[in-house]
Amino acid sequence: MTDRPVSEMTFEEAMAELEQVVGKLERGDVALEESITLYERGAELKKRCESKLKEAEEKVAAITLDDEGNPAGLKPVEGQ
To answer: Which pLDDT score, from 0 to 100, does residue 78 have?
Structure first.
């Protein structure tokens, strides 16, 4: 784990550290105070991953086709 601010992490970095946090918590071999700190860090990392996924989802566009099946443009992903 790093002391790097979560807000500066890429999705991949945040996901990798989140996996480390979950692993430590699942083993259960850390003291209560450290568990609380790990849980809080994990919550931040989870939020960062969700945020980065949402950003990527918003950038994705579906290609629209005209009546003849030719590309006619782009539209935002449904639900956006």
So the answer is: 60
CA–CA gap between residue 51 and residue 8 (Å, rounded)? 12
Residues of the chain under the 70 pLDDT cut: 59-62, 76-80
Q: Is 13 exposed, middle or buried (0-12, 13-18, 19+ CB in 10 A)?
A: middle
The dihedrals phi and psi of 64, each to the nearest 5 degrees, come to -95, 145
Q: How many whole angstroms from its chain centre is CA 76?
A: 20
Which whole-number Å values give the CA distances from 19 to 35, 43, 72, 74, in the listed order? 14, 12, 42, 36
Give me the phi and psi of 26, to 5 degrees please: -70, -35
